[in-house]
């Protein structure tokens, strides 16, 4: 009997995308539960925020090491040295606690992000918003209907509460724009996925851990996710800086890019 036949057919096979998305969901939910318990056990303030960041990171990265021991991980709270993840075939990009200052204060606009990039392409992700009882993953999220833009009604756009994008003014010159300020990238993204707003627009900077899992869920829902010039978001770069983003259903995405990127 050959050595190859001693190995069960799928023993060395990679997990499927559905298995990776299910793991992302399971770990986002479990990390969120840990953060809910910590929030109940601590007083509002910076100490709760710092403990949330650190304890969620330790739990999530530990769980990934057990479930996917050979995969690389980029976490907001982990090492910023790109060497261990450079060129990784499979790279998990996680934000153990996005919207950490709101978490520290005791609000509900915060979340847990878990995403997987394979050979530089975003393939799966999950976002948990535990204080809002929301959990979504790229495989099971419902498709958003691509309703056309009504130019008279205009668009509702969610933006950072603390750092609203300068591009809003250019949009508002083209059609009526109502803005909805929210904290945390996952909160804003799920507001688009749930149809509460038409688009999430951000500029002025972010990091791959802020938008990888939200982007995966949004793409799973049939939304378009790009930079503000229409190029794809970067994932797996040595520098995890991610300058800007636009998440919207295709008809809205096109209408906004028509304004922002004169063609
Ligand atoms: N201009 C900027 N530069 C760097 N990070 C930014 C940024 N604007 C937003 N972010 C990050 O993106 C996440 C969502 O921000 P916002 O709530 O303002 O939309 C936050 O992550 P953290 O909460 O994990 O730090 C925040 O730090
Ligand atoms: Mg973040």
UniProtKB/TrEMBL annotation:
Keywords: Magnesium, Metal-binding
The keyword tRNA-binding appears for this protein: no
Needed co-factor(s): Mg(2+)
Catalytic reactions on record: adenosine 3',5'-bisphosphate + H2O = AMP + phosphate
Pfam families per UniProt: Inositol_P (PF00459)
A GO molecular function held by the record: metal ion binding
Gene Ontology BP terms: 3'-phosphoadenosine 5'-phosphosulfate metabolic process; sulfate assimilation
Domain of life assignment: Bacteria
Residues that coordinate or bind Mg(2+): 76, 95, 97-98, 210
Transmembrane feature ranges: none
InterPro entries xref list: CysQ/Inositol_MonoPase, Inositol_monoP_metal-BS, Inositol_monophosphatase-like
PANTHER family with a match to the protein in the record: 3'(2'),5'-BISPHOSPHATE NUCLEOTIDASE 1 (PTHR43028)
Name of the protein described by the UniProt record: 3'(2'),5-bisphosphonucleoside 3'(2')-phosphohydrolase
